[in-house]
Write a structure and sequence with these properties.
Blueprint (H helix, E strand, L loop, with lengths): L2 H12 L4 H13 L9 H4 L6 H39 L23 H23 L3 E2 L1 H4 L1 E7 L6 H8 L9 E5 L3 E6 L8 H15 L9 H8 E7 L1 H30 L2 H25 L8 E2 L1 H31 L5 H33 L5 H34 L4
Parallel strand pairs: 1-6
Antiparallel strand pairs: 2-4, 2-5, 3-4
Length: 418
């Protein structure tokens, strides 16, 4: 640096500018051979200038520095454009590199070999569910079957076969179904006089119930004590209402699936994502329904198909689609970040980056449901059980059903090789 440069920098420093910063900036221009002519140098050789002159000098210097910096930036950008154009003219292609994942990368579905295994597992579970539904059927509740339902508390042993034999003569050909319900109760269902309405009919049915249950109530039991102390719940659903409830439940599930497809399609702008999500939701619903069919009468709590079960299915659908959206959203982020990368690698990386989050969230929810199942009332055990199974199956399908199906159709549409 020469004396003239030093004088200018010192004058800037008097107005609050950092001397060392200005010095480095000035030296940088000198190294890059950028010549800055501020004013005639004789003007700057005199240090004893008044404040007005100093301000003028500083303003000019700062303006020129800014102008030179902006000019240099524009020139650099122009040179970059010219270089890119020249390279393109020579056949060089630009874009993000389509790189392969390293060998030690944590690939859960590396080369999608695991997709064949999970497809076999899903197919086996759905097949078992369908066979159980066709062979065993369901424990259909009053909501869907129609009839009268009573929950009776007993203090002694609950022999459901003996209770059913005792009640059969009272209900005149409409033999009731008796099953344990909770720790001390029995649930009795019958369609006796289901088409007749009125308070007198309900009183008659309850009297017949009392006569049939009398041998199991202990000595000295009366109808009044039975109605007050033992009869805990009484419900009646007519055949027409039951059919309406079934129709409404089916429509609710179908509408939910359609809405989920439209939501995914609109959000991600690809129908393949929507198809994968809906297939995963159907997969979850069929397996949960199949487990209900397979285990009713085996487990020591009620797995009755009713309105509560439909609510559980709809809740499972909502929870499962949330996990699926998280996975799809991450895949979309990687697609935008690496547009040249193979679809298989994008899906693979998206699933691997969300798998820990998905499992941790599901485990937290499952533990909450487990506590509710252990310490909750008997009436909610069936609902909590279906929710817990739905959480497990929904987490599995979000990772290993929805994504592979979306990838398969997307790959087919794009003509990629597996």
């Amino acid at each position: 640096m020469n004396d003239n440069d030093t004088l200018v920098i010192k004058s800037l420093d008097r107005l609050g500018r950092n001397y060392e910063a200005i010095k480095e900036e000035w030296q940088d221009f000198k190294k890059r051979n950028i010549h800055v002519r501020v004013l005639d140098m004789p003007l700057l050789n005199t240090e004893n200038k008044d404040d007005l002159t100093a301000n003028l000098i500083n303003d000019v210097v700062l303006e020129l520095l800014s102008y030179v910096a902006e000019s240099e930036r524009k020139n650099t950008k122009q040179r970059q454009k010219e270089g890119i154009k020249a390279a393109k003219d020579k056949g060089v292609k630009f874009g993000r590199p389509s790189v392969e994942l390293p060998d030690n990368w944590n690939s859960v579905i590396k080369d999608w070999k695991a997709g064949k295994i999970t497809a076999f597992i899903s197919g086996a579970m759905i097949l078992i569910s369908i066979i159980s539904i066709c062979v065993r059927g369901f424990d259909v509740g009053v909501d869907f079957a129609g009839g009268r339902s009573f929950v009776v508390e007993l203090q002694g042993e609950r022999n459901v076969e003996a209770i059913a034999q005792s009640l059969a003569p009272q209900f005149e050909g409409a033999a009731p179904e008796v099953k344990t319900y909770g720790a001390t109760d029995v649930k009795i269902t019958t369609n006796y006089k289901i088409n007749e309405k009125g308070a007198d009919v309900s009183t008659e049915v309850e009297n017949k119930l009392f006569e049939g249950m009398k041998p199991f109530l202990g000595e000295g039991a009366t109808y009044e004590s039975f109605a007050q102390n033992n009869l805990k719940q009484s419900d009646m659903v007519g055949p027409t209402i039951a059919n309406d409830i079934i129709y409404g439940a089916v429509i609710a599930i179908i509408v939910a699936l359609i809405c989920m497809f439209l939501y995914i399609f609109i959000r991600f702008s690809k129908w393949q994502y929507g198809l994968g999500a809906v297939v995963a939701l159907m997969h979850d619903s069929i397996i949960v329904i199949g487990i209900y069919s397979l285990l009713y009468g085996i487990v020591p709590f009620s797995l009755e198909i009713g309105q509560t079960f439909v609510a559980a299915i709809l809740t499972i659908i909502g929870y499962s689609i949330n996990d699926t959206v998280v996975v799809f959203d991450r895949i979309r982020e990687y697609t935008r970040e690496y547009p040249k990368r193979q679809t298989k690698l994008l899906f693979n990386q998206g699933i691997n980056s969300t798998i820990s989050r998905t499992i941790n969230t599901s485990m937290t929810t499952f533990l909450t449901l487990l506590i509710m199942f252990i310490f909750g009332a008997d009436a909610i055990k069936g609902f909590v059980f279906s929710m817990a199974i739905g959480i497990i199956v929904g987490t599995y399908s979000s990772l290993f059903v929805a994504s592979p199906i979306s990838y398969a159709f997307m790959k087919k549409n794009q003509g990629e090789e597996a």
